[in-house]
């Protein structure tokens, strides 16, 4: 069976929720027994989002094969069973790079290279190559209709229907229906103009999802149908919900998945949505609550920690508690002593120090790590968070007062973390090298790497006593093994190491309720129905600390 294709576009404004709509639709089709794949096409010229600030583009999601991708791929993996790869996310930069490489190689010898057909053909090839033999391929087009950057992608998906036949392609357009409070009315004009833009380039949406803060009446839907030339039973409300995990249920209640399988001429039984109902029940009616302090520097934009926030929620689901997040600006706590911190954060049940890059906020994260260590508050450090836990321990427990990472102090007598100069790809087939002058894009230890666990450790117990695990990485600096013996003598426990290389992956200490730092990013593989073991254990420790 050849794949059926669903293309999801958006209009009026960005951040309407195309990624969540695509992920939710994927979850609904999966619940009907279909094999689903998801892909994101981004119009920006960066080859990938790896060098972009989180303030620009939110979180960078990492796949098993080491691709730095758009954060929407995190939604895709959390909502479905699909395992994404580097072919699940293409940008304009990546597409143009491939076309220019072909031109230099002589593949177009004698011809003029143009947007049509060369760029559009490359886009279509990238979609087909990725889709393979899955039942339904859901492809989200980033940006909004009308953006000059997205025009080649929209032209490519317009051609797709003619390439493989109208019964195999479905266009879904997500748009905004705002409620104007002063007028007391929902306004359909933004949707009308958005669909008009789409139709001008030759795409007629088969389904319109209307993002609104309330249900749309039949009269509103009929009006949109009339002016947008779409069947009235193909106009649906994509209403605001309390939790993103209600989205599949909300779309199902509207009848979106029924319409999709009907238009694509796919026969399935009714979806099995009991697991989604159970997830929503646990989120809405938990038995308790824990408060987690997230000590970061990107707290002004919570999209920067999207996977992290969701993984904490998943840990709460597993422990039947609501996880309340309190964002703490790392820069604002630099230099504060334990008494002041206790006064400000006495309500915190556990601290989490996330990853990041650059010097800003580093000393504040070190302060938080020391405070949680001394006051026996559950502490979880991820990537940079783990590195700064080691720096704090080295300074205050091992007597290395100037300990630091060479990322933050080029000249230091005690660089407990240093630049990773040589490493292998996630599949072990390629060897990479770099120094301080190397390009920043893609020059990190990326993707899934194997890790061996120490029996009896926090990590070993969290992972159900497994001796080996595999987790995704995204970092440029590594634990300096020259300091391993010294730090271990003073009580630092190395409880996770790379299977093939002598690289430190997990650190812990004894005589603490839960103190663990990991070099990898466990949040990338956490799902609501399969919470990551470390987040489950961390939230359990925070819950237990309330009774101490």
What report would you give on this structure?
Strand 12 (288-296), helix 12 and strand 13 (321-329) form a beta-alpha-beta unit. The protein has 548 residues and is of the alpha/beta class. It has 18 helices and 25 strands. It has two domains: 4-278, P-loop containing nucleotide triphosphate hydrolases (Rossmann fold), CATH 3.40.50.300; 288-418 and 479-493 and 504-545, 3-Layer(aba) Sandwich (Rossmann fold), CATH 3.40.50. The mean pLDDT is 91. The chain has a nine-stranded mixed β-sheet with strand order 13-12-14-15-25-24-23-20-21, with helices on both faces. The protein has a seven-stranded parallel β-sheet with strand order 5-2-6-1-7-10-11, with helices on both faces.
């Amino acid at each position: 069976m050849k794949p059926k294709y669903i293309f999801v576009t958006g209009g009026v404004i960005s951040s309407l929720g195309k990624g969540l709509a695509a992920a939710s639709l994927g979850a609904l089709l999966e619940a009907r027994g279909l094999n689903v794949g998801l892909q994101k096409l981004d119009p920006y010229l960066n080859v990938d989002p790896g060098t972009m600030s989180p303030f620009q583009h939110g979180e960078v999601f990492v796949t098993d094969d080491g691709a730095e991708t758009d954060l929407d791929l995190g939604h895709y993996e959390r909502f479905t069973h699909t395992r994404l790869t580097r072919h699940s996310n293409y940008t304009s930069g990546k597409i143009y790079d491939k076309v220019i490489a072909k031109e230099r190689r002589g593949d177009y010898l004698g011809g003029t290279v143009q947007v049509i057909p060369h760029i559009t053909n490359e886009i279509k090839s990238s979609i087909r190559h990725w889709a393979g033999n899955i039942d339904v391929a859901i492809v989200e087009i980033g940006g909004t209709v009308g953006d000059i950057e997205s025009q080649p992608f929209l032209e490519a998906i317009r051609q797709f229907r003619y390439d493989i036949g109208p019964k195999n392609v479905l266009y879904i357009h997500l748009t905004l229906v705002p409620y104007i409070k002063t007028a007391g009315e929902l306004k359909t004009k933004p949707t009308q103009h958005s669909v008009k833009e789409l139709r001008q380039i030759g795409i007629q949406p088969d389904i319109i999802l209307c993002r609104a803060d309330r249900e749309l009446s039949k009269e509103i839907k009929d009006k949109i149908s009339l002016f947008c030339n779409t069947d009235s039973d193909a106009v649906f409300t994509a209403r605001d919900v309390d939790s993103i995990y209600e989205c599949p249920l909300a779309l199902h209640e509207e009848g979106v998945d029924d319409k999709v399988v009907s238009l694509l001429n796919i026969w399935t039984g009714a979806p099995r949505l009991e697991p989604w109902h159970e997830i929503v029940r646990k989120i809405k009616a938990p038995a308790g609550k824990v408060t987690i302090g997230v000590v970061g520097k990107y707290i002004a934009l919570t999209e920067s920690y999207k996977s992290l926030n969701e993984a904490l929620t998943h840990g709460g689901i597993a422990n039947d508690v609501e996880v309340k997040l309190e964002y703490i600006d790392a820069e604002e706590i630099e230099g504060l002593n334990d008494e002041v911190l206790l006064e400000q954060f006495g309500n915190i049940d556990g601290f989490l120090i996330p990853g990041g890059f650059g010097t800003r906020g580093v000393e504040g994260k070190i302060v938080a790590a020391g405070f949680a260590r001394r006051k026996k508050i559950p502490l979880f450090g991820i990537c940079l968070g783990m590195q700064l836990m080691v720096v704090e321990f080295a300074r205050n427990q091992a007597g290395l007062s100037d300990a630091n990472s060479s990322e933050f102090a080029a000249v230091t007598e005690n660089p407990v973390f240093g630049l990773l100069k040589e490493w292998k790809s996630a599949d072990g087939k390629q060897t990479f090298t770099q120094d301080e002058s190397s390009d920043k894009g893609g020059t990190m230890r990326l993707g899934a790497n194997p890790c061996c666990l120490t029996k009896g450790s926090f990590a070993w117990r969290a992972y159900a006593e497994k001796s080996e695990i595999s987790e995704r990485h995204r970092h440029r600096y590594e634990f300096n093994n020259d300091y391993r013996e010294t730090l271990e003598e003073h009580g630092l426990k190395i409880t996770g190491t790379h299977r093939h290389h002598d690289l430190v992956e997990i650190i812990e200490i004894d005589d603490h309720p839960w103190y663990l730092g990991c070099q990898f990013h466990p949040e990338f593989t956490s799902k609501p129905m399969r919470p990551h073991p470390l987040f489950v254990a961390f939230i359990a420790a925070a819950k237990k600390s309330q009774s101490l």
